[in-house]
Amino acid sequence: MSGGASCRSERRDGVIIQDVNANDALLTALQRERFVPDRIDAFAGAEATAKYGDVRVSPGEKLSVERTANAPELEWPLRENDSGAHTVLMFDVDAPSRTTSHGLCWLHWAVVDIPGLDIARGAEIVPYAGPTPPKGSGPHRYVLAVYRQTRESSLPQLDRPRFDPLRFAHSLALEPIAANFFVAENE
Q1: Distance between CA atoms of 128 and 68, rounded to whole angstroms?
Q2: What is the reported pLDDT for 99?
């Protein structure tokens, strides 16, 4: 998806309001890539706003491995008076490559028990590791997914390889609320 969907959002009294048409475009892109329903349960298609330094990620945008070496700044729409906790995941759906993918993902980041939008106060159970696709393996798609927790997490142990985000979300009764994705390649 070149250029990606634009998503206009604004803050009103601490709540991020998003453009419904942009949400529809994001959801269409997520479905076209088969992230929904294969990796994330169906949801309204709200965009997780991701920034690597001064670069805001447009869904499907190609970014360099160097640009994405450090964790992004993230925001997502909150319901009014939403005081619940959230979980953030980042995973590579194309590990080890698109043609030899085994159907599971490589987990790059997992943070649970995030109060509101304050990732720094969440529990990072898998530290951020930027994209490192093997040379010559082609472009890899990286998904950033945000979930509303329906209960306090039990801080599960997770391994990076062979990660199943759908199974993980189901096991903790996580409700997907926002997502974004980008492409990186080690040329």
Answers
A1: 10
A2: 86
Give the amino acid at 84: G
As a whole number of angstroms, the distance between CA 86 and CA 111 comes to 8
Tens digit of pLDDT for each residue in 32-84? 998 998 999 888 889 999 999 999 999 999 999 999 999 999 999 988 777 78
Length of the chain (residues): 187
How far is 76 from 156, CA to CA, in rounded Å? 24
Whether 88 and 73 have beta carbons less than 8 Å apart is answered as no
Question: What would the pLDDT profile of 95-115 be if each residue is shown by its tens digit?
Answer: 998 888 878 899 999 999 999
Confidence (pLDDT) at 22: 65
